[in-house]
Amino acid sequence: MRVFVTGSTGWIGSATVDELLQNGHEVLGLARSDAGASKLKAKGAAVLRGDLDTPAVFGAGARDADAVVHLANKHDWADPEGNDRVQLSAVEAILEALDGSAKPFVISNGLSGIVDGRPVLETDASPAVGPDSDRAGTENLALEAVSRGIRSIAVRFAPTVHGRGDWGFVNWLAAAARKQGVSGYIGNGSAEWSAVHVTDAARLIRLGLESGAAGTRMHAVAEQSISTKAIAEALGEALGLPVTSIDPADAGEHFGVVGHFFGQTMTGSSELTRERLGWQPTGPGLVEDILAGAYSAD
After folding, report:
1. Residue 37 contacts by C-beta under 8 Å, 6 or more apart in sequence?
2. DSSP H stretches of helix in the chain
3. How many whole angstroms separate alpha carbon 85 and alpha carbon 87?
4. Which residue among 31, 148, 256, 257 has its CA within the 20 to 30 Å range from the CA of 213?
5. How far apart are alpha carbons 25 and 119 in whole angstroms?
């Protein structure tokens, strides 16, 4: 397949491009910069220039491919409403281009905010519906488009998609630990996160494109539950720093933006995902990755 990948030079996107190319697929990657375009070309991928502020490009990429993986996200924590607006425009452009095509469309989401008090299941629908909801309700919008002849599939990522070179939450926790001189956890550290290695997440995306059923949700979850205290302890050991509890009232000041998430339990099951797609994670676990030095470099 020729696969149009948005967010193709990002953390998960880069691994997805590698996974697709290594398994015989062609890639058309969206790139917003010369550096990103050069990176894609060096891998053997074709390049489409554009970004989330140019939604027409998303439609053009979808029309010029056999399948679409939408991973692009501005991650502008200061303007969530703006993020949602551009997400909606991009997804609408992709869906319009894919109407009636039967092409696979994998759209990304997270586990947070779907259910409370237990791990999220693949059968749990996202409560985000409509343009004023989280991510402008684009997961549901995409899954509803199955009725329009699109093989839409949602992939929900664990809160940490980890590995050497990670730009995300655990990297921010490590940066906060270096800055503060201690590796912290919030309160008693009983909040829990799911985790998945980036290579396992990329493989799941490929499997979904190749054989995922229309209208289903896949969970990129290798480890269902790791306490935030265990994450902090692993970072402390890897960085040679003491480990301490941080008062919830001080979490924002101590951790920055990631403090809002580090105090939340965000877990999900991947039992159905494994059963349906034969996906078996093989990458290192989160604590193993941390202790092996994946987050030790500044």
Report:
1. 31, 47, 49
2. 11-22, 34-43, 55-63, 80-98, 138-144, 169-180, 198-211, 228-239, 251-255, 258-262, 271-277, 286-291
3. 5
4. 31
5. 34
Q: Rounded to 5 degrees, what angle do the CA atoms 23, 157, 114 make?
A: 145
Structural domains of the chain, with CATH: 2-159+197-220 (3.40.50.720), 164-195+223-268+283-291 (3.90.25)
pTM of the model: 0.95
Residue 63: exposed, middle, or buried by beta-carbon count in 10 A (0-12, 13-18, 19+)? middle
Tens-digit pLDDT profile for residues 99-111: 999 999 999 999 9
Residue with tokens 């500044």: 298
Biggest CA pair distance of the chain: 57
- pLDDT-derived band at 80, boundaries 50, 70, 90: confident
Extract the tokens encoding 133.
């909801």
- E strand or H helix that includes residue 224: strand 223-227
